[in-house]
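Writing this down once: the sequence line spells out the residues, with the fold written below as integer tokens. I am pasting one below:
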Amino acid sequence: MTKRRSPSAQAVPGRPAGKFTQTRRLERLREALEARPAGLTLDELATVLGVTSRSVRRYIQELKWDTDVESVQRAPNEPHIVRIPPSEQRRAVPLRRTQAYALLATRRLFEVFRGSALFEEIDLAFRQIQQIARRPGGRGSTEIALRADLDDRFAFVAPATGNYATQGEILDEIFRALAERRFLIVRVKPEFDEEKPVRTPGTPGTSRLRFVPEGLFAEGGTLYLVYAASSSTGEPQRLLRVDRITEAQVVDGAKGLAAGEPLPAEMFARGRFGAAFAPEKFTVVLEFDARSAELARRRRVHPDQRVASAADGRFRLGFPAGDLEAVARWVLSFGDGVRVIEPPELVASIRATLTATLAKYR
């Protein structure tokens, strides 16, 4: 027998009965405004939320903390409408559950930024996408069931990333300078294989640089900062490993140089062995035996690579590279299944490594 509620127990405008928290009310308010770009009146929003107009005003003030909301009057004597400004409405992107899970699969790629405010913002977005993945919805030809539970079973496994947790503030300063095209002052630890800038007196072991960053990208789990060597035009770009930076500060009030076309990240990350050092000044040619040929064929190490196969199963791979040290580590992972044809610098490096290794086992 169903027990009827008394009139006094019926839900009334104001505070809804049941488990209906303020967070859920704010989410419903945001969804209602996103669904109606033209806007809604206070009375219409009160009906949607099942609360009073006074409560709607309070929720709108709360929503303004993280969403741009405005009140406009279309014509005299007409009620004001509440809406998300047209310039901000494009931030709302509808996603199906399949699309949400595909984006969640890339979540681990951003671990390299952990410790920074940037990571917190990205992580917040992924948590919202996760709610979409778990939200009931229709089924289409590409849609999947609600209880797919793919959060931890569908993932892009990124290379092991460097630990930048202690450089969170540095990452935030870099990102700000990059976004606002401002000068950045950094202190860096010296590195033996890079041209050393002028040392700052009184700061042993570090150097001071001032530049406008032009790019930031991760390759092989390592973060690199792209910058011009000097303020003069036409200077070649350089790459600086973020883990070498000990301090970073944006120069407030000082805009950077007038930038032309943005430098694409691909310009500094062409293939597996082109990111760490620029430009690509070596041509690498490797010959794999029949045992290792199939594994080598699966790897696309550079967009301009060249391949050739022999009747006996051997496989030749040629590509440009800028970092022979990284190439050498990859070649050694094949053991005796590969031989370096060129360049001679790489042949000498591999021979020296194998000779030193053999000496340890005598």
The CA atoms of residues 59 and 65 lie 10 Å apart. The chain has four domains: 12-91, 97-148, 165-263, 282-359. Residues 282-359 form a domain with the Alpha-Beta Plaits fold (CATH 3.30.70). The radius of gyration is 29 Å.
